């Protein structure tokens, strides 16, 4: 069965610093991978997705993620964090009828 | 384009009472999902509809939870009777994607319905 692990429950970074959020997955076939962001009291918004092809994918709000099959990872990165990036970030794996989410990483941004 | 609409946004009930949540997906989206998000956890799929049929309800606690999407558009999720552990945010999402598609469609989420069971 597919599963997603986000090892970091909470991360704090300074505004302007770089960010990397980790995601490891377990999936029986070629994975479809996603990163979603959730601001307080809001629903989830898709940041980016990987289906196939180039393993470095670009998303909205300046985020990117790299698929590494050998490490079963799909880490999210941003070169320079803004205060508005403070939110909960969820990695997900699956397809149209088996989407599974990780437990999330809460990002705090220090001034 | 209107997003996924959910109501009510907040609900507080006593245990053993019943509650219902409503979701109206984005127009034209065939697939509708209900997720349960307990505080500090990621969303967990409860049930997935494609049009008015159920694709996956394997994680729905059927002794107390029920859901329907009678006309293939809006959907209702009901809990009866509620337990303390049902306190969570119930998220509805919709997608153009279908179960048989080669690639999954993007999920669009509503703002959620927060349930507190006392």
Describe the protein in words:
- The complex is a heterodimer of chains A (111) and B (118).
- Chain A has 111 residues and is mainly beta.
- Chain A has no helices and twelve strands.
- In chain A, the strands form three sheets. In chain A, strands 2, 5, 6, 10, 11 and 12 form a six-stranded mixed β-sheet that branches.
- In chain A, a hairpin with a 6-residue loop joins strand 10 and strand 11.
- The N and C termini of chain A lie far apart (41 Å).
- The model of chain A has no long low-confidence stretch (mean pLDDT 92).
- Chain B has strands at residues 5-7, 10-13, 19-24, 31-37, 44-50, 53-56, 65-68, 75-79, 88-95, 108-109, 113-117.
- Chain B is mainly beta and 118 residues long.
- In chain B, the strands form two sheets. In chain B, strands 2, 4, 5, 6, 9, 10 and 11 form a seven-stranded mixed β-sheet that branches.
- Chain B contains no helices and eleven strands.
- Helix content of chain B is 0%, strand content 47%.
- The A-B interface holds A 4, 6, 9, 32, 36, 41-46, 49, 51, 90, 92, 94-104 and B 4, 31, 33, 35, 40-45, 48, 55-56, 91, 93, 95, 97-101, 103-107, 109-112.
Q: Determine the fraction of residues in helical runs of chain B and give it as a percent range.
A: under 10%
Shape of chain B: globular
- Termini gap of chain A: 41 Å
Distance between the termini of chain B: 37 Å
Q: β content of chain A, as a range?
A: over 45%
How many DSSP E strands of chain A?
Answer: 12
**pLDDT below 50 for ≥5 consecutive residues: which ranges of chain B?**
none
Number of helices of chain B: 0
Low-confidence stretches of chain A: none
Number of helical stretches of at least 4 residues of chain A:
0
Number of strands of chain B: 11
Tell me the series of helices and strands of chain A, N- to C-terminal.
EEEEEEEEEEEE
Would you tell me the overall average pLDDT of chain A? 92
The Cα radius of gyration of chain A reads 13 Å
